[in-house]
Amino acid sequence: MEPVLTTIQIPGLGVLEGWQNSDGTKQFFGIPYAQYSERFRNSKEITSWPDNKFDARKLGHYAPQPQRPFYPFPMPERPHLGESHQGEFDCLNLHITLPSGTKPEDKLPVMIWFHGGGFVFGTANYSVLDGRGVANISSDIGCPTIFVTVNYRLGFFGFLASDDIKEDNARYGGGNGNQAIRDQHNAIKWVVKNIGALGGNPDDVTLFGQSAGAISVDMHIRAPHRQLIKRAILMSGVVPICGHYTEAEYHNIYLKLVRACGIDLNLPGSERLAALRAVPYEKLCALTIEVMNNLNLPQFGPCVDGEVLGDVTIPTLADYVFNKLDWDGQLMITDVQYEGIIYDHEFTMTAEELVSWARQILPEEIASDMLTFYKISSSMTRKELYHACEAIVTDAVFCGPAYFMAKNHPDAFVAHWDYRSPFDNAWGGYAHHSLDYFFSWQGLNGILKPHEIALGRATAEDYIRFANGQEPYPRGVKDGTSSKRACRVYTAEAKAEVFCWDEYKGRRIEWFERMGKYMDKFDKLAFEITMRRSKLVSLEEGVAAKATSNVTFL
User: Fold this and answer.
1) Is residue 40 helix, strand or coil?
2) 552 pLDDT band (50/70/90 cuts)?
3) Which of 64, 75, 405, 449 has its CA 20 to 30 A from that of 266?
4) CB 412 within 8 A of CB 396
5) pLDDT by residue (tens digit) across 397-433?
6) Distance CA 396, CA 400 (A)
7) How many other C-beta atoms are found inside a 10 Å radius of the C-beta of residue 23?
8) Where are the domains of the chain?
């Protein structure tokens, strides 16, 4: 049965048109929440609609991005939503799914999703993120919940900072980089302001996201507006996993982009910026790989601008080892077993180079311990080196930080995904980065086996119960006469089970403890493996020689 037109009146905005599906769910797509007038400027929340009406029956544009070198996954078709296209100045939009029977007075919990993709790739328009499946599950288990997915700026458009951008933005409210984080803040504000008209509770908001989306969530629960957020789910990510950059480091990346566009570096800053703004967005997207070290999987991270988190400093991994969040909301932290495999194309270091970098970055004793622990030697095979690099990145960037964050937040719920991919691609047979959300969102149920559908549903139920203030699993595991802290594990056997958190053998916990106070350095090594970060944030001597004195170089 085809979906039919439905309408809802939103005070201050007007009539919102959307779809009512045969299962009773209602969906609204491409709702604009913010806008901006110039590339690299901060967005402003939208407070009115033309003619007091918005037709939300088609997908909105999504953020410009390069073609993603990613193993393909089948995407369900949704022909009634039209085609999905990129667009620079109209990509700040969101999608809303209401469970069947939702009434304006219901005050249902709201879950806001930020997608991943290294802040370079991804969109809320992916059909695997359609909210119907999870909305129906929420009704089935007696926890009806509203789902919101958000498009925001990516890549250069969402994060680039420079002296030129900072000077220009000073006339328009400030800011240097982190445009995407501010976009997301505007999305949160829009939802809090307007979701009541759709049956949601603006005081019961859960943010959840995966990878770069989890970074986003982690940023917002540290920001001055964190009181808007009641709960948070961090899936495979904390703030440092994509790295973060000083303004000077981003300025160097900016100059590399300016040069790659054929713009004269000797121009005054305002003219350089104007010339860069005149470059078609398609060209900037195409230059992403080249400027970002010719990586197959480039990524951006927050700029340490001193503004986006207010008085709070953007955290390093040491903050996760030693500190607790200044936020009184509820927290859930998840990871997958083979996170680092996402960087498989970047594992190009030789064993000798890896040994050299380890000894440069880590204290000698720790470097020796690390080389022994991961069995790294000059005689290892290429396959052995690949698996060592994957394990280092998994531990340093993902699972180690997640462990320490959970350790410092004893009330947090913790979940591990160990079920291995059934798909026929290079990651098949691995519990890889992103696999958990493909299952939990229900978008691939048409091709999964019954036991896999059941596992994805169990995962979704855990998240939904958490967002409804319930315990997704028992907090304690019986150990004789006492009870120990529990964690959820979605096992290789496709079961949702409960284990003792600090004794679970599926993560290298004892090694994390050994590396504790060296996690920042361990992370630095991982970024040399995946990004060649030291090269990324520096400039060649030839560039410096051509530039005028108003250009700052590291």
Assistant:
1) coil
2) very low
3) 64
4) no
5) 999 999 999 999 999 999 999 999 998 888 889 999 9
6) 6
7) 14
8) 4-69+78-546
Looking at the predicted structure, is the pLDDT value of residue 545 above 50? no
Using alpha carbons, list the distances in angstroms from residue 185 to 76, 96, 224: 30, 17, 10
Phi-psi region at 173: left, alpha or beta (left = phi > 0; alpha = psi -120 to 50): left
CA distance 227 to 180: 20
At 126 the three-state DSSP class reads coil
**Model confidence over 26-62: pLDDT tens digits?**
999 999 999 999 999 999 999 999 999 999 999 999 9
Instruction: Report the alpha-carbon distance of residue 457 to residue 140 in Å, rounded.
Output: 11
Q: If DSSP codes are grouped into helix, strand and coil, which group holds residue 506?
A: coil
> Tokens representing 216?
């986003």
All residues at 6 or more sequence positions from 63 whose CB lies less than 8 Å from its CB, including other chains: 86, 88, 91, 123, 151, 152, 153, 154, 155, 157, 158
Residue 544 has pLDDT above 70, yes or no: no
Q: What residues have CB less than 8 Å from 409, skipping those under 6 apart?
A: 324, 325, 331, 333
Q: In a 10 Å sphere around its CB, with 0-12 CB exposed, 13-18 middle and 19+ buried, how is residue 156 labelled? A: buried
Distance (Å, rounded) from C-alpha 257 to C-alpha 333?
36
Buried/exposed code over 281-290 (b: 16+ C-beta within 10 A; e: otherwise): beebbebbbe
Quickly tell me which residue has 């991804």 as its tokens: 122
Contact status, residue 525 vs residue 396, Cβ threshold 8 Å: yes
Report how many helices (DSSP H) and strands (DSSP E) the chain contains, helices first.
Answer: 19, 18
Any idea which residue has 């953007």 for tokens? 314
> Phi then psi for 244, rounded to 5 degrees?
-140, 160
Q: What's the pLDDT tens digit per position in 295-352?
A: 777 899 999 988 888 777 889 999 999 999 999 999 999 999 999 998 888 888 999 9
Structure tokens belonging to residue 86: 């990129």
Decide if domain 4-69+78-546 falls under CATH 3.40.50.1820.
yes
